[in-house]
Known about the structure:
By secondary structure, the chain is of the alpha+beta class. The protein has helices at residues 3-12, 19-29, 42-67, 81-89, 112-121, 167-189, 197-225, and strands at 70-73, 104-109, 128-133, 146-151, 159-166. A five-stranded mixed β-sheet has the order 1-2-5-4-3. It is globular.
Amino acid sequence: MKKAEYQSLADAAGLHHYFETSWELYWKHGRGPTPRQSPEDLIEAYYTARDLSSTFRHKIEDISETLKVRTSMRPQGIKSPSRILEKMKSHPPGQRRVPNDILGSKLTCKSIQSMYEVAEKLPRYIEVVHFSDRVIRPHQSGYRDLQFLVVVEPESRHIGEVKIVHEQLDALDQYEHRIYEITREITAEFRSKELSPVQQRILEELARASDNLYAWLWKDILSREEHL
């Protein structure tokens, strides 16, 4: 992506103040293809992640303490096997790869400014192999974060995910995730069947509700922080 195009996306998101920081991170860590998990075998990757979960947790906790932000890990430490398989099956057969977020963590910040300050400093403390500004280019639902893929430990080169999130978006996500779970259940249950008009309407309304919530909150965050 060219710099002018990237800047246009930042301006459209109301983030012109943070464009240079984001562009520098993108230029260093985000231009290439998303790296493959190590090991690439699903079972080996899962057990590697399980063995490294404590190492990853301690490393992220140390970083959060240094940067003075809150952190949280997955409730069970690692992504469940069923969720890993579900995520892989969501891609076409020829494009299914072991996900890079079997190990995942969040660093939660009080402001947009703090998010980008933490993002700028994070590569000093852990090896970053990929960066994606999903604040400038948000998820389809409207959820926004800064995603880093990092090397958990040098020997295995296993990859974990670190997301930097705004505390208000994180709070909303706790509720919106229930909408996502309902959508996922309906989609999974009727994956090989045609949805009824009622089921289709439910999915459409849930998607609309999610979009509206995130759009409203993002507008509110920008309004509150524009003079900070």
